[in-house]
UniProtKB/TrEMBL annotation:
SUPFAM superfamilies: NAD(P)-binding Rossmann-fold domains
Keyword Oxidoreductase belongs to the record: yes
Family: Belongs to the short-chain dehydrogenases/reductases (SDR) family.
Keyword Oxidoreductase among record annotations: yes
Protein name (record): SDR family oxidoreductase
Region (Disordered), start-end ranges: 1-34
PANTHER family on file: NADPH-DEPENDENT ALDEHYDE REDUCTASE 1, CHLOROPLASTIC (PTHR48107:SF16), NADPH-DEPENDENT ALDEHYDE REDUCTASE-LIKE PROTEIN, CHLOROPLASTIC-RELATED (PTHR48107)
Keywords associated with the record: Oxidoreductase
InterPro entries documented for this protein: NAD(P)-bd_dom_sf (IPR036291), Sc_DH/Rdtase_CS (IPR020904), SDR_fam (IPR002347)
UniProt biased composition (Basic and acidic residues): 11-32
Cited Pfam families: adh_short_C2
Amino acid sequence: MRQSQSFQPAIHEEPRMPGTEDKMADKPDWRPRYPGSGRLVGKVALVTGGDSGIGRAVAALFAREGADVAIIYMANEERKDAEHTMAIIESEGREGLCLQGDVGCRQFAEEAVTETVETLGRLDILANIAGEQHPDDEVTDITEAQLRRTFQTNIYSMFFLVQAARPHLRKGSAIINCTSVTMYEGSRNLLDYSSTKGAITAFTRSLSKSLAEDGIRVNAVAPGPIWTPLNPYGGQPPEEMEDFGKNTPMGRPGQPNEVAPAFLFLACEDASYMSGQVLHPNGGSIVGS
């Protein structure tokens, strides 16, 4: 495992909620369900939020399909999770790179891309998965610091990473952004979060048109309620956790390994005629595309 130096600029913000999968009693299921078929052999992927949850499942599946994978995680509390993900990547016979820092900081985003290319040799797939959410019952409860932080992590980071990655991407490369079912259905207590997800969907569709002529595909995945550290560690009100995901037609939250295949499909040549699209692993909720 290759571990980069930590880069965490001083930012005035509300307390963060690092989600530590290692400490969860009911651990999310990240394991790929099938043997690999070599769909990403020779590719290099950079996965933000790759230490746990959907990011870990995506990193594991990419590695199983033959990619070398760099992951980004934010907080020191998440280091053990990140090391576990690195062990998963290496157990698939692939090379991994572990980067710690704030994806909402342009300087770190540039350094993360540079280190990925210098260490793993290239960059073919950018999976923008890292995100944060802070529930508030009233719009007046959302502080300016929280609003800025949520947008910085969820959408600014995607601009910064795409800008840094752009010179390294070539025909056949793929960018996959993580939006959310809340972009389509709205969310009464995640106003700032769902707003960033709307921005991500618009960013995905616009960027796809910008890069299509160069053969670079840009798509997104809009998960529904997925069992990851984000929610029990403050992403949802504690009193609502018992019923988390039960309002979907399937009556349960999804697992990260039920979302990762959507990222794989959009990353590989199976999706060679798709760009500007959104896939919806959301437990059966019918939403606009």
